[in-house]
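Hey all, quick one. A colleague (J.T.) asked me to put the 2-acetamido-2-deoxy-beta-D-glucopyranose job into the tracker so the inputs and the structure tokens live in one place instead of scattered across chat threads. No bug as far as I know, just bookkeeping. Sequence used:
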Amino acid sequence: MALQLILSLLLLPVVSCSAPTKYLIGAGIYDITGPAAEVNMMGYAMLEQLTNGIHFRLFSRAFVVADAENKTRFVFVSIDACMGSQSIKLEVLKKLKDIYGSVYTAENVVISGIHTHSGPGGYLQYLLFDITSLGFVKESLDVIVDGIIESIKMAHDRLQPGYIFFGNGTLLEANINRSPSAYEFNPDKSHYEHNVDKQFVLLKMVNEKGKGIGMINWFAVHCTSMNNTNGLISGDNKGYASFLMEQHMNGLGTIPGQGQFIAAFAQSNLGDVSPNTRGAFCADTGLPCDYNHSTCHGKNELCRGIGPGKDMFDSTKIIGQKQFAKALELYNSANIPLVGPVDFRQAYVDMTNFSLEVDGQTVHTCPPAMGYSFAAGTTDGPGAFDFIQNDKKDNPFWDAVRDLLKTPSAEQVKCQHPKPILLDTGEIHEPYDWQAPIVDTQLLRIGQFVIAPVPGEFTTMSGRRLRHAINETLKLAGFPKNTQVVIAGLSNTYADYIATFEEYSVQRYEAASTIYGPHTLNAYIQHYKTMARDLATGNPTSQGTAPKNLVDDQIPFLRPVLFDCHPLGKHFGDIHEDVNKTYKINETVTVQFWSGNPRNNLMTNATFLTVMQQQSDKEWRVYRTDAFWDTKFHWAHTSFLGCKSLATITWDLGSDVSTGNYRIHHHGYYKPLLESPEPFEGTSSVFSVTS
Ligand SMILES: *[C@@H]1O[C@H](CO)[C@@H](O)[C@H](O)[C@H]1NC(C)=O
Ligand SMILES: *[C@@H]1O[C@H](CO)[C@@H](O)[C@H](O)[C@H]1NC(C)=O
Ligand SMILES: *[C@@H]1O[C@H](CO)[C@@H](O)[C@H](O)[C@H]1NC(C)=O
Ligand SMILES: *[C@@H]1O[C@H](CO)[C@@H](O)[C@H](O)[C@H]1NC(C)=O
Ligand SMILES: *[C@@H]1O[C@H](CO)[C@@H](O)[C@H](O)[C@H]1NC(C)=O
Ligand SMILES: *[C@@H]1O[C@H](CO)[C@@H](O)[C@H](O)[C@H]1NC(C)=O
Ligand SMILES: *[C@@H]1O[C@H](CO)[C@@H](O)[C@H](O)[C@H]1NC(C)=O
Ligand SMILES: *[C@@H]1O[C@H](CO)[C@@H](O)[C@H](O)[C@H]1NC(C)=O
Ligand SMILES: *[C@@H]1O[C@H](CO)[C@@H](O)[C@H](O)[C@H]1NC(C)=O
């Protein structure tokens, strides 16, 4: 037995009277990097934010947990994508059924997004979310679904007996509230020290010998360290934290996605939580923005959240490093074993008219609608036109624009009050639904630890109230006193934001994006309490009706790649600008190749670039791929509407790079007219790195 496990076991009596329960645990990882060119990024809803290369690759990380008798299991999947989506879950379930029969179902599969705003979009099935990506992008959906399947297969195949330990700590200076003026309206704010959650909750998974299998942690912070001008695919701060943890555990230089130890930095109640810790300032004057409206001179565009770094890459690095450092600390110290059964509950809930009691009165939720302040965006990514946050008044011009699509019914206006409706998405069903009428809700249990996957972005206080309600319900119904509940955000269905009733009355961005009206949060709380009671008493939960799979109804507009070309006398993969002969640490190596459109082949589980290092026996070995932090693959056409394109590969030489000889390869596919894409490769000259 490893020393660490012995120590953990010795510490048991202090914190628990029961022996740790043995579980079956398996972890898996696979590449889900989507089209690295010309596809709109999901998150900021900026038409002009298109992918143009890769900073580092995106992965799906799957964790199967079963009881020791192998009777009950679930799989928790964290994806480096903006969110889980209904189309992803339904497509994944179809494939899992073909492979495993009834082992994995809607009930025991969770797909939770880390919320990076730097991944290709177009994979959501409800129309609103695919407007800025100019329709559905099948390539985006397919690579995510296939990658999730590969990661689950790997986790399934690697199942082995082991133990799980819980760690809980506090991480300061890595997140702030971006809508404090709304948060302040919560009467229960005095129960908490901070206006965002600082808690960092972690599960450590080890095998019987004490060897690490993997780790999942939950910390609430938007993955918006990279801003809306970025075109390089990136896992943002959480993707980078995973990279760092896996490098640390698997050995520095391990090709990402190929190590045994798997580390998920999963998302939680991040609704109003920004990583831009210096706060929001006016880009022109440098002064703080208007507090209530997040405007500069009355407009939203110039008000931007910044920091903590000198640019967006540096900020991503800092917020990622902080999460990595806390995770490592908690991983090394986690000593509360999970004790008890594996279980789960799941239900589809129609949120368009959910009845509930509030203060003795029957109220109900409404069909989806987006408020005016939704269009103002946030300080992490401002919106457009004259929209501002905290707006509770209609404007005749925008109402007229709205009415071209749909005039909201009188009932809807009343139901959504005080939200002025900008988009009456819930009352438009052509060509198919614009936002989710039905959401997928779940609870997972491992002993005294309960994961609550939620279909959207709960604000800080919404998350606290939901956690508390689940916690109390479980304990009342017989769960152990030390029960721990964590929220897994952006899981399964994407149903936008969930603000509290009080925040809703303020109508900042998060409230304007709380789509089912003022009682949205209370409806969720009531429903999760029902599931918690069922989980605690062993009763089944009525599953409800699954939403339609709309994948076959989708309309793509993205133009296929017609053909690629290169200048006369050159070939695909030829050098345009070569490397220098020598470089020093802290310099950046740059090389440019004539290239083909990266959409011709996503290079899944492969790479568009390799840095090769010469060994003492003169052989060349892979040293870096496009999945590393210090390399960047940048792709662009040489002219608008042209067919020629250049790939620019850069490599930042950090202090961890060894001196010696290197060369850089570019791999890709080019598209001949009317034929299938063909592979090509290019190689730079050899260069040396000196100290
Ligand atoms: C555990 O159960 C699953 C699903 O029924 C099955 O595929 C797998 O082979 C079993 N594993 C072991 C170790 O028995
Ligand atoms: C923000 O709005 C509140 C009313 O909701 C008001 O009392 C307060 O003075 C405003 N603060 C600022 C800085 O404008
Ligand atoms: C995005 O970050 C870069 C620095 O990396 C900065 O120059 C730019 O102004 C930022 N843009 C926005 C819209 O925040
Ligand atoms: C919502 O449900 C209630 C009953 O719970 C019903 O009276 C009401 O008409 C429904 N509203 C709509 C818009 O369907
Ligand atoms: C749930 O209750 C337990 C015991 O009172 C407590 O330790 C824990 O922090 C509570 N909260 C959550 C979110 O689990
Ligand atoms: C973690 O600890 C904090 C206090 O430091 C507590 O408020 C919170 O409920 C704990 N989280 C869980 C999931 O137990
Ligand atoms: C490289 O830069 C880092 C950080 O700026 C610095 O600490 C280090 O000394 C530099 N190394 C060399 C070899 O210049
Ligand atoms: C070559 O070195 C010069 C001077 O250090 C630098 O400005 C340039 O960017 C380097 N070129 C490449 C291709 O790395
Ligand atoms: C992914 O790549 C690794 C390393 O090259 C290889 O071992 C593995 O089989 C590949 N996986 C799939 C599903 O192709």
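Adding what we noticed when we looked at it: The radius of gyration is 25 Å. The domain at 575-690 is CATH 2.60.40.2300 (Immunoglobulin-like).
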